């Protein structure tokens, strides 16, 4: 375990060129066979240059074990976006440091409002792969990752299933009730 459950931390995203992107106020929740889990409480902040969001529902994020190509987020009620997966590069938790990742624009989304499961921000992906000069092997790998994640989310394969979401959203709720 990296930290004690409930330990506050920041999760920092950047863009391919190293510029800052989203930063999330989180707490460490624990780990399982899928990876390390952090949570954002209602009222937590997420911000990037030019924008700040105050969470109106709890969310949990998983940094996958043995993979560095995505970060899974489950949102609690009342959010209609239940699953949001950032396709990423260089997802890591350096020893003694804080979690970081490079946002690569593509996202896999599962909504509860009838829109279902889809890959989002493909227009931004196309624009940024030229702007930032993503290497062809990175483009190929991440497009395959997005398609694979979309298939797995659609099939509700663990850890993209409701039981996993409920487990970790429950862990966040228990931290809040013990505070």
- Measured as a percent range, the helix fraction is 25-40%
Q: How many strands appear in the DSSP assignment?
A: 10
Q: Assign the CATH class.
A: Mainly Beta
For the record, what is the CATH homologous superfamily label?
FomD-like
**What is the architecture at the second tier of CATH?**
Beta Barrel
Rounded to the nearest angstrom, the radius of gyration is 16 Å
- The share of residues in extended strands comes to 35-45%
Q: Give the SSE order as H and E letters.
A: EEEEEEEEEEHHH
CATH topology: FomD barrel-like fold
Report mean pLDDT, rounded to a whole number.
Answer: 94
Given helix and strand content, the structural type is: alpha+beta
Q: In the residues, how many domains can be counted?
A: 1
Number of helices: 3
Ranges with pLDDT <50 over ≥5 residues? none
Provide structural commentary.
This protein has helices spanning about 120-130, 135-155, 160-179; strands spanning about 10-15, 20-30, 35-40, 45-50, 50-55, 60-65, 70-75, 80-90, 100-110, 115-120. The protein is of the alpha+beta class and about 180 residues long. The mean pLDDT is about 95. The protein has one domain (about 10-179): FomD-like (FomD barrel-like fold), CATH 2.40.380.
């Amino acid at each position: 375990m990296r930290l004690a459950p409930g330990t506050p931390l920041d999760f920092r995203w950047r863009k391919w060129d190293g510029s800052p992107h989203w930063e999330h106020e989180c707490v460490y929740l624990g780990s399982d066979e899928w990876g390390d889990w952090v949570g954002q409480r209602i009222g937590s902040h997420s911000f990037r240059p030019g924008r700040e969001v105050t969470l109106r529902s709890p969310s949990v994020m998983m940094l996958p074990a043995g993979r560095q190509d995505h970060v899974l987020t489950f949102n609690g009620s009342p959010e209609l976006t239940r699953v949001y997966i950032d396709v990423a590069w260089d997802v890591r938790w350096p020893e003694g440091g804080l979690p970081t990742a490079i946002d690569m624009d593509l996202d896999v989304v599962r909504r509860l409002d009838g829109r279902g499961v889809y890959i989002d921000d493909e227009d931004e992906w196309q624009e940024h792969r030229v702007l930032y000069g993503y290497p062809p092997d990175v483009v190929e790998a991440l497009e395959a990752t997005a398609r694979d994640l979309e298939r797995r989310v659609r099939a509700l394969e663990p850890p993209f299933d409701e039981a996993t979401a409920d487990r970790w959203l429950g862990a966040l709720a228990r931290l809040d009730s013990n505070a």
